[in-house]
Amino acid sequence: MRVALMVTCINDAMFPDTGKAVVRLLTRLGVEVDFPSSQTCCGQPMVNTGYLDEAVPVVRNFVESFAGYDAVVAPSGSCAGSARHQHSIVARRAGDPELAAAVGQISPKVYELSEFLVDVLGVEDVGAYFPHTVTYHPTCHSLRMLGVGDRPTRLLRAVRGLRLVELPNAEECCGFGGTFAMKNADTSVAMGSDKARHVRETGAEIVVAGDNSCLMHIGGLLSRQRSGVRVMHLAEILASTESSATPEEHPVDAATTTTDSDIGVPNVTQGSRSAIQYRRNR
Amino acid sequence: MTGTFVGMPPFPTAARAALADTQLRANLAHATSTIRTKRARVVAEVDDWEELRLAGAAIKDNVLLNLDEHLLRLEESLTAQGATVHWASDAAEACAIVVELAKRHGTDEVVKVKSMATQEIDLNTALEAEGIAAWETDLAELIVQLGDDLPSHILVPAIHRNRAEIREIFRRSMASVGRAAPDDLSDEPARLAEAARLHLREKFLRAKVAVSGANFAVADSGTLVVVESEGNGRMCLTLPDVLISVVGIEKVVPTWSDLDVFLQLLPRSSTGERMNPYTSTWTGVTPGDGPQEVHVVLLDNGRTRALADDVGRQALRCIRCSACLNVCPVYERTGGHAYGSVYPGPIGAILNPLLRGVGVDEQVDSLPYASSLCGACFEACPVRIDIPSVLVDLRAQVVDAHRAPMHRIPKPEAVAMKAASFAFGTGGRLGAAEKASGLVGRLVGRVARRATPDGRPLLGRLLGPGSAWTDARDMPAPPAESFRAWWKRTGGGHEQP
């Protein structure tokens, strides 16, 4: 099976640790994953803002990049959803039957990470170890557009050491919504503040989700509030193992005002490594 | 005496004001969560709910496909049963017909059944201009009218008001238009309802002309249907001599067996009840029983424009249940007024642009963007209107309307999208952009005063468009190395780290 990683533009440019975690995780599960370096973006930012003409070259590049793979895995429900449900709209707009045919070929092979693990690989216990209390936010596009259901929580429950606590009003949108977060910033923040409040009500150290875009919004609010709660992508938790959890010096940032935030920081992930790197850089 | 939506600012501006209204936020959070819970409970008890939704959507789609034939059949049946059918292509024509009929009967007042169509055409204002008072008799519409307010919900127009506010409105305003509220009025629901009942009773018994809408119009029998909870509709539909019903052309259903599907879908979706308390049906004129003169105004007012829209026409399936409003996280926080229309919430965000067209009015053009595209509305819709897809399609229509030569200076957003389109055109271009952002990341790393809990340096408060993000949310600096650069450097992670 030829498997391609569709890392997504936001992970590529802003959250590379998530992409690295997917590579570690899939390699550990015996899947050789390829990264077609011509890939860029799924085109959703343009489509959802109304710029269909601008999305055409992006979708064209997408189908060229991923042609010939048996499965395309994305650590994002939203981007996978865009490939599965919106690329045909863009192809129709382009009036290009060849593009439409290529979209028809590739769209059904695009999987969100939890779908790929549970449905294609048939695993729920990925051998991860993560001794922390987390709460899970089901992102809207994974929940309602793709219908991933309880796959992510089944994967999380199988992680050794992990305690999963339920998030109140979990299925309510966090308010990110792509350019909605900018065009309707006040409403977006009002929704996100309620989401952040519910996260804090759980007492969890970490809120986990399958989309870093939503997490950037929720995490941005939690960080501004000095809440002492951090966000983490599902892939990074599933990639964590006992050997990667070797005790490291705890990263402490003098400028972080709350002490709470430090208590819960897991020192088992790529995140803490980058933290140390960050301190070195300083 | 009811206000008007004309001149409302675009959604983001109106929403900002609404979001700051703590009373509104509290009232809405309480009301929508209550009704959401009720709906979820009664929908869950129907085993074939999904089949019902599919049937409802299919019936409406078939009607829309042959709308002309069904409407002519409806006209024929209504006429045969003694009703008079009028055709109105827009709001002005519809209002003129109703005003003319009221004047012909020499009345200076009409009683009204709650009706979205008459709200849509702003009939009350048209009647008022001719010296005819239009009394709203639905409790929530009465609250809105007495409060010189605007409706903010399709089903519960006064959802933004709580009991204490309603008591004050009754105490302040009832006396000037009829029977006053009692001096010792409390905010108990039963006492408030009693005050409204007594106030309205004298209007029901006096009025010679009633105005209604209709939830459904059965073509083969010429029967109009009104579904309601309070019995005020039944009073209006049976007591006055003359009944005028303003009905959108999409309300037609072919037969009574089609109606059956919707009478199962509507109450559960709207009030969260298995069946609504009052379902009134009337078929033209019945000698010696009920109104002896029945008029039906069939209203287009943009519906044929919506029908011509390949993606958007599904919005004409809407049965005005308001389930989409109650589950919408945007509506729950901004309330209905921010949408600047009698049709608020997700359905309003698509219906208003579809009925009125895009590219003309900034307020209308802002509506398709008033959604995070979370999809809760589609899930709740009893006739399966894919609201998120229609929103996305309408956004493209808004953007396309502004591509026209008349808008020669592109908006910053259009420039940004063009730039992104170019950068996302090849992996090489994106890689180059990421190198630049990585440099920014390194620089920020040297000067940043704060970091995320996992140690990533934070950007400070951004200026310009970026401030829309950083006003309320922290933003991590870009990483020094992108994923693609890491992949290249390490050979896909084989040469760690």
Itemize the secondary structure elements and their pairings.
The complex is a heterodimer of chains A (282) and B (497).
Chain A: E1 3-5, H1 9-13, H2 16-28, E2 33-34, H3 44-49, H4 52-66, E3 71-74, H5 77-85, H6 87-94, H7 97-106, E4 110-112, H8 113-120, E5 133-136, H9 140-146, H10 151-157, E6 163-165, H11 180-183, H12 185-202, E7 206-209, H13 212-224, E8 230-233, H14 234-239, H15 260-263, H16 270-281
Parallel strand pairs in A: 1-2, 1-3, 3-4, 5-6, 5-7, 7-8
Helix pairs in contact in A: 4-6, 4-7, 5-9, 6-7, 12-13
Chain B: H1 11-19, H2 22-44, H3 49-65, H4 67-80, E1 84-88, H5 91-104, E2 109-112, H6 116-120, H7 123-129, E3 133-136, H8 139-146, H9 163-177, H10 189-206, E4 209-212, E5 216-218, E6 223-228, H11 232-238, E7 242-248, E8 252-253, H12 256-270, E9 278-283, E10 293-299, H13 303-307, H14 323-327, H15 329-334, H16 345-356, H17 362-366, H18 376-380, H19 387-401, H20 412-423, H21 427-447, E11 458-459, H22 467-470, E12 475-476, H23 483-490
Helix pairs in contact in B: 3-12, 9-10, 16-19
Question: Can you give a write-up of this model?
Answer:
Chain A is α/β, with parallel strands linked by helices and 282 residues long. Chain A is built from 16 helices and eight strands. A four-stranded parallel sheet of chain A has the order 2-1-3-4, with helices on both faces. A four-stranded parallel sheet of chain A has the order 6-5-7-8, sandwiched between helices. Chain A starts with a strand and ends with a helix. The model of chain A is unreliable at 246-282 (pLDDT under 50). Chain B is of the alpha/beta class and 497 residues long. In chain B, 50% of the residues lie in helices and 10% in strands. In chain B, the strands form three sheets. Chain B has a six-stranded parallel sheet with strand order 1-10-7-4-2-3, with helices on both faces. In chain B, strands 8-5-6-9 form a four-stranded mixed sheet, sandwiched between helices. A two-stranded antiparallel ribbon of chain B has the order 11-12. In chain B, β5 (216-218) and β6 form a beta hairpin. Chain B starts with 10 loop residues before the first helix and ends in a 7-residue tail after the last helix. The model of chain B has no long low-confidence stretch (mean pLDDT 95). At the A-B interface, α1, α2, β2, α3 and α4 of A face α1, α15, α18, α19 and α20 of B.
